[in-house]
Design goal:
Elements lengths: L6 E4 L5 H13 L2 E6 L3 H13 L4 E5 L5 H15 L4 E4 L17 H28 L3 E6 L12 H20 L4 E8 L6 H4 L3 H10 L8 H13 L7 E4 L9
Parallel strand pairs: 1-2, 1-4, 2-3, 4-5, 5-6, 6-7
Length: 251
């Protein structure tokens, strides 16, 4: 893909990983919309950075649990730019619940996690599908997690939602072929982000110790994998783990 004249939407673009992905796509030559749910100021900062870099940019509010909000987002992005070529399903939600504490994982929490992390990306792919197909070179990249490959992470619901997102990647790769490629990045712990700051030091040390490189993944590496997926014309239905080389993710 030649990024010149292309338009991307990065969901959760107000967050640390989303912002890094948005900046990497802009550096590659794309115009970039970013979505946010409550942090309008942070999304605005991202838009300003991208505009100063010479790219068109736009912030749109999006609640992935709300089908109407998704429909409004689709109309807003296409209406603003006139097209969309790249969808990055980065936004997600999690909560820390130990695996063994099944009672704490209520139906309400389960539904919120699955609606945000699985149903939302599907509805966005569905909503943008016709436009992504229009130029016969569309791209979708889903952001999952190592916990979607091996049991772990913040909760069973989070791990299950990301495992399903990985398989949704396979299914959408079939459904949208040959006009759209659909791939996935599965990060492990990403230090230097606000989310990682809430992780206990012992957990961070354990993640480093389990990784053969002795370090965890980075937001920059995740963003560069997203750009690589968008550049290529012959890779679809694939998941790459970015975690410093944890053997649990080596499949």
């Amino acid at each position: 893909m030649d990024f010149s004249g292309k338009v991307a939407l990065v969901t959760g673009g107000s967050g640390d990983i989303g912002r890094t992905i948005a900046e990497a796509l802009a550096d590659a030559g794309a115009d970039v919309a970013v979505s946010y749910i409550g942090e309008a100021a942070r999304a605005g900062e991202v838009v300003e950075v991208l505009r100063k870099a010479g790219r068109r940019s736009y912030a749109v509010q999006l609640d992935q649990r709300d089908p109407k909000s998704i429909d409004d987002c689709v109309r807003s992005v296409i209406g603003h730019f006139g097209r969309i070529d790249i969808l990055i399903n980065n936004a997600g939600w999690n909560i820390g619940i130990p695996f063994g504490d099944l009672a704490a994982l209520t139906p309400e929490i389960w539904d919120r996690v699955l609606e945000t992390n699985l149903r939302g990306p599907f509805l966005l792919a569905r909503g943008f599908g016709a436009e992504l197909r229009r130029h016969k070179s569309g791209r979708i990249v889903n952001i999952a997690t190592l916990a979607g490959i091996a049991p772990g992470g913040s909760s069973i619901a989070y791990a299950a939602s990301k495992a399903a997102l990985i398989h949704l990647t396979h299914c959408l790769a079939v459904a949208l072929s040959p006009d759209v490629t659909v791939n996935c990045v599965a990060p492990g712990l990403v230090e230097g982000t606000r989310m990682a700051e809430r992780v206990p030091d012992a957990v961070k040390q354990s993640a480093r110790a389990q990784s053969v490189l002795g370090r965890t993944g980075s937001a920059d590496d995740i963003a560069q994998m997203v750009v690589a997926y968008c550049r290529t014309d012959s890779v679809t239905g694939q998941t790459i783990v970015v975690d410093g080389g944890n053997p649990m993710g080596m499949h």
